[in-house]
Amino acid sequence: MRINLELIILLITAFFPPIIYAIWIRNTETYHRERWIAIAVSFLWGASIAIIAALILEIFLDAQVNMTFQQGTLIQIIAVILIAPFAEELVKPLALRTKTVKKELVELEDGLIYGAVAGLGFSATENLFYGISFLQEGLLYFFILMSIRSVGGCLLHASATAITGYGYGKTLLNHTSLVRVIPYFIIAMIMHAGYNFLVSWEDIGVLSGLFFAFILVYISIKKVRQKIRYLDNSH
Do the Cβ atoms of 167 and 184 come closer than 8 Å? Predict the structure, then answer.
């Protein structure tokens, strides 16, 4: 009975906030809101295929770094600041290349929305993985850390992947080279790396790091939603 209750709590706390955020992002549009089937495909891509692909890529890149560098601290910095943002921001926005989503990309704001939703799907499964380890420390510790992840981690993934999604949407609608997505991908990586740095390094203080990380995601998601509304109202 206890195992079943913990599983229910784990699934709700991992998936419910990202799903609510996905609905919130989708409903930012007033006109021509995205079809639910395409929203679901983006979310499920992030929650499944993107997680698996990112994990494989991170394991491969971590192995290469370990063969190159000997210092444990340096390896940790590279993994958190470079490898994780690179791998994750590379695979999450590929949701926009699925047939269901691609045919719905008809407006510039669509890339922002589908990118954000794919990021939220990714954060849901990531929450699940972290939540399993958090449960070992007791329910109070679990709820505190899951609450932090439900705000910081979820909105970071949403806003960072929205940026790359916007870049991809522009290339598709303007019929330009995918090379033009690279600047948006770099911005997403920098955002992700900055967040990881703030929440990982104890030298700046745990509370200070969390405070600045939350400021980063608050500004980022606010700008994403403002851009969606601006583009939506400019048609």
Answer: yes
Distance CA 79, CA 45 (A): 23
Roughly what angle, to the nearest 10 degrees, separates helices 36-47 and 49-68?
A: 30
Residue pLDDT, tens place only, 34-86: 999 999 999 999 999 999 999 999 988 887 777 666 655 556 676 678 888 99
Angle in degrees, CA 45, 102, 88, rounded to 5: 35
Q: Are 199 and 209 in contact (CB under 8 A)?
A: yes
Would the pTM count as exceeding 0.85? Answer: yes
Distance CA 54, CA 218 (A): 25
Whole-angstrom distance, CA of residue 212 vs CA of residue 58 = 26
Residues with Cβ < 8 Å from 164, sequence gap 6 or more? 89, 92, 93, 115, 181, 184, 185, 188
